Amino acid sequence: MMNKPMITIKHLLAFIIMLSNVNVFADGMVVDKVYHPYVIANEQEFEWRFMSSQTPDSNVLAQRLGYGQSILENFAVELYVIGERDETGDFKLQATEVEARWMLTEQGQYWADWGVVFEFEKQRNISQYEASAGLIVEKEFNKNSLTVNLFVIKEWGNNIENEWEAEFRLQYRYRYLPSLQPSIEIYTGEDFIGIGPGFMGVKRFDGQKQLKWEAGFITEVAHSGKNHTLRFSIEYEF
């Protein structure tokens, strides 16, 4: 049994207030994966993510491929290579990233399940870096799940401003069937508020082998210049 975490509702509220007071200058993609706090002991996984975002002035395409494994019963590390389409239309390797997820509580142990995620990304061939820390909270009630991600992000390096960003992600999910779980997702960042439907599912095999998939279509609602983002991911855990 893991020790009881020191994080309480007061800590969560204080974190939200801190985010609301951060001067953020978000120039990256706000729509991404909604993280869940769970880590399975001895798990390994391969993950592929696809994201396409369209505005009247741009068409962004990004993909990432990752491999990860749990190194403790409640702690997992994953490595990614990230490719993006540049301004000339060529798709190239743009960055590498290391991610660490820490499950703070056992599932169902307290009123909500808690975790944290840390990410460090470096751009390829240039000295540009991004580090982030995120708090993950998930509450299940009957067949419903509510998941919240709160991120603080720091960017620095050559030819970019040293800046702080803050992001918020929310997913309400109805666990209709293991293979079909519809959801509503909300993403916020500087000058961005997006909302849209999502779907996810899981197909289980022998042992702890399983295939997970997610898809979502997010529409910006904060400004007249609409941003439409399609996200899709597949994870194979074994």
Rg of Cα set: 18 Å
Give the number of helices. Answer: 1
Strand content: over 45%
Decide which structural class fits the backbone.
mainly beta
Major beta-sheet overview: 12 strands, antiparallel, barrel
Summarize the entry for a quick read.
The chain is mostly beta strands.
Plain-language structure description:
With 238 residues, the protein is mainly beta. It has a domain at 9-170. The chain contains one helix and twelve strands; from the N terminus they run αββββββββββββ. It has one helix at 9-21, and strands spanning 44-54, 59-72, 75-85, 91-103, 113-123, 128-141, 144-157, 163-174, 181-189, 192-204, 210-220, 228-237. A hairpin with a 2-residue loop joins strand 9 (181-189) and strand 10 (192-204). The two termini are 24 Å apart.
Question: How does the SSE layout of this entry go?
Answer:
Layout: H1 9-21, E1 44-54, E2 59-72, E3 75-85, E4 91-103, E5 113-123, E6 128-141, E7 144-157, E8 163-174, E9 181-189, E10 192-204, E11 210-220, E12 228-237
Antiparallel strand pairs: 1-2, 1-12, 2-3, 3-4, 4-5, 5-6, 6-7, 7-8, 8-9, 9-10, 10-11, 11-12
List descriptors:
single chain; 238 residues; globular; 5% helix; mainly beta
